[in-house]
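Lecture notes, part 5. Sequence design as translation. It can be helpful to think of inverse folding as translation between two languages: the language of shapes and the language of residues. The source text, in structure tokens, appears below.
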């Protein structure tokens, strides 16, 4: 199964957006699935359901740091490589979705009864969020290969 599809399925099975992205790279990053799940737990819903930076993006940032760390010899190199990769991730994600902000991507406030109802009734998790997860993984794959 393609990694982006795997991340989408993880997301739709109950993992948050950040967990789904990070878990899809667990083997490549030598991160245990248990540790990946724990590290990314608070990043879903745009950073603890604050609806700021999309969890798929923050999960992808974690993956880029883990993958880029394999290729460098010192902290300055690591920062340079990581920052360039993150900028490319943000640029490509924004080209696709016009924003990286969760609240703007889904068009509702998850912390209100009305917003939560809209999210559920309009199947935003399936129609918007799952696509963000899938695209974030595709972007990371393109950046790292």
């Amino acid at each position: 199964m393609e990694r982006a599809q795997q991340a989408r399925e993880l997301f739709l099975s109950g993992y948050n957006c950040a967990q789904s992205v990070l878990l899809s790279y667990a083997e490549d990053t030598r991160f245990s699935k248990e540790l990946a799940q724990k590290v990314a737990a608070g990043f879903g819903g745009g950073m603890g359901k604050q609806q700021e930076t999309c969890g798929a993006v923050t999960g992808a940032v974690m993956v880029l740091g883990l993958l880029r760390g394999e290729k460098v010899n010192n902290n300055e190199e690591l920062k340079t490589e990581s920052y360039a990769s993150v900028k490319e991730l943000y640029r490509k994600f924004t080209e696709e979705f016009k924003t990286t902000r969760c609240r703007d991507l889904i068009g509702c406030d998850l912390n209100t009864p009305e917003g939560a109802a809209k999210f559920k009734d309009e199947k935003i998790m399936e129609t918007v969020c799952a696509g963000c997860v899938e695209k974030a993984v595709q972007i990371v794959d393109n950046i790292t290969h």
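The translated text above is only one of many valid answers, since several sequences can fold into similar shapes. Residues 75-97 form the longest helix (23 residues).
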